[in-house]
Amino acid sequence: MWAISCLYSGGLPALPRTAALNGFWTRFGSNGSLDTTLETSSPWIALVPRTPTPMTHYPVTGVFAESPGVASFEVPAGASGNHRCVVAFVHGVDAPLDVTGLTTSVDDVVPRQPQVAQRNISVGAPLSASADAKQPSPPGEQSVTGPGGAAASVQRYVEFHNPTARASTMTVRIDSASLPAPLSLSFRLSENARPASIVGATKREVVASPFNLLFSLLEEFIAFLHALLGIAPAKHSAPRKLRLADVWHDVAPGVAPEVRDVPIAAHGRIAAEISIRLAGALEPGSEHRVDVLHLENGRIVGGATIIVPIAGVPKYEPAWDVDGGEGEVAAEVDRRDA
Q: What's this model's pTM, rounded to 2 decimal places?
């Protein structure tokens, strides 16, 4: 089994070529061979198998439907590794991957080929059950910690890719209408995003932090030096994030905003940062979801779900009254058996 990963995305980038710049599917030989190299400019990285000895793929043996196995891989650590998309491929001498007619779009391949699977992996702290006495920092600044060490806000960077060789136009829909009022949502876009319109949100400009601006300039300077000196990125380093605008868009409770008709170049990408902050109190142990959808021509072609857990233990509600409860359940079973 071989696994590759990219940053959490609403629409995934095209599957990468080999280091020799051959097409992605050429790496899967009909004799079970596998070329695990990747082109250095790819947004994808190959995950390192968790095996006793260094390997490029995870050896899977003796696995059957009635006797499943587990393949373990190392996921990058740190902020850039907290939320990633992983695509896994099963290929070998006894089960060569049939690549006939497959494209480089993950969303197209996964439903058609059972030996290819894709999952989103997220690691994050739950929000505190009530707002901290110290108010959460505004979006774009460092989040503060709530009671008991729980987070007071959640921020997710989400990319949207065009995996095709032709320019396209996309719409981003943030399905946040079901969020309870104590959770407030804001978002901002990457600087290269040029939507025709944004509906369902109020524009708000934030003065950029001098520290953040200096850090961005330093990142760009380092990237320029690497390109000038021909230094390739580290083998397992995460791809660079797109630079984000200093304009935020605040969403009112019960509203699902849309970023409409965003041009996206062939094999291009744009990004959004979603910020969800707690401004009141919520039921401990509850979970809340926001779907970030990638649409083209009114059709959903990708997306991501942000799960916002609330710290604490869910309230336990008995399934029936303790007094006489067992008799009521038995009577219900009798009725169903009849």
A: 0.61
Two structure tokens written together for 3: 């696994």
Q: Which two tokens stand for residue 138?
A: 């505004």
Closest CA to 312 of 276, 288, 277, 283: 283
CA 333 distance to own-chain centroid: 44
pLDDT tens per residue across span 5-54: 988 777 788 999 998 989 999 999 999 999 999 988 888 999 888 877 77
Contact 7, 79 (CB under 8 A): no
CA dihedral 309, 247, 260, 192 (to 10 degrees): -110
How far is Cα 127 from Cα 145, in angstroms, rounded to an integer?
9
Using the structure block, give the residue that is written with the tokens 């907290």.
82
What are the sequence ranges of the domains in the chain? 1-123, 147-309
First vs last C-alpha separation in the chain: 50
Q: Are 19 and 37 in contact (CB under 8 A)?
A: yes
Q: Is the pLDDT of residue 329 over 50?
A: no
Amino acid at 223: A
Closest by CA position to 259, among listed 177, 304, 183, 193: 193
Specify burial of residue 18 (Cβ count, 10 A radius: 0-12, 13-18, 19+): middle
Q: How far is CA 162 from CA 34, 43, 106, 127, 140, in A?
A: 26, 13, 11, 33, 26
